[in-house]
Amino acid sequence: MDTTAHTMQTEIILAFIALAGTLAGVIGNAFASHKNRKNAIDGEFKKGVTDSLAELKPIKETLELHTAHLRENYLELLRMKIFATDLPLEERVNAGEKALAAGTNGSAKIQHEENVVALKEARRK
After folding, report:
1. Minimal CA–CA distance to 92: which of 72, 108, 71?
2. Residue 96 DSSP class
3. Residue 87 carries which DSSP code?
């Protein structure tokens, strides 16, 4: 092989090596750029979630407070029904059963038991 052909082959090989190096650099930069963008997006996403949770906290606290008040009001309504002599005995007994299931006790429980006895007596007649 003559020297000119050999030199030309060497130059082509060196050109391919240079091209491969350039491509590797471009691909490496693209991956690094992608990773940086992904990290930035992940950071923004995490910040958004954290901010959203912080905004939801007072709403959750208010909801819990309203839920507790609703439960108190429900139990008070049931107690009022248990003691309401102007209501039919069946309605007072049903209210007593719901109140006992919800965890009430004390005088409401005693009155409920008296209502149950009175209802049984009324049904016997």
Report:
1. 108
2. H
3. S
pLDDT tens column, 64-109: 999 999 999 999 999 999 999 999 999 999 999 999 999 888 899 9
**Percentages of the chain per state (helix, strand, coil), in multiples of 5:** 90, 0, 10
The predicted-structure confidence for 12-47, as pLDDT tens digits, reads as follows: 887 778 777 787 877 877 777 777 787 777 888 888
Distance CA 37, CA 30 (A): 10
Do 123 and 101 touch, CB atoms closer than 8 A? Answer: no
- Tell me the three state secondary structure of residue 84: coil
Residue with tokens 């507790």: 68
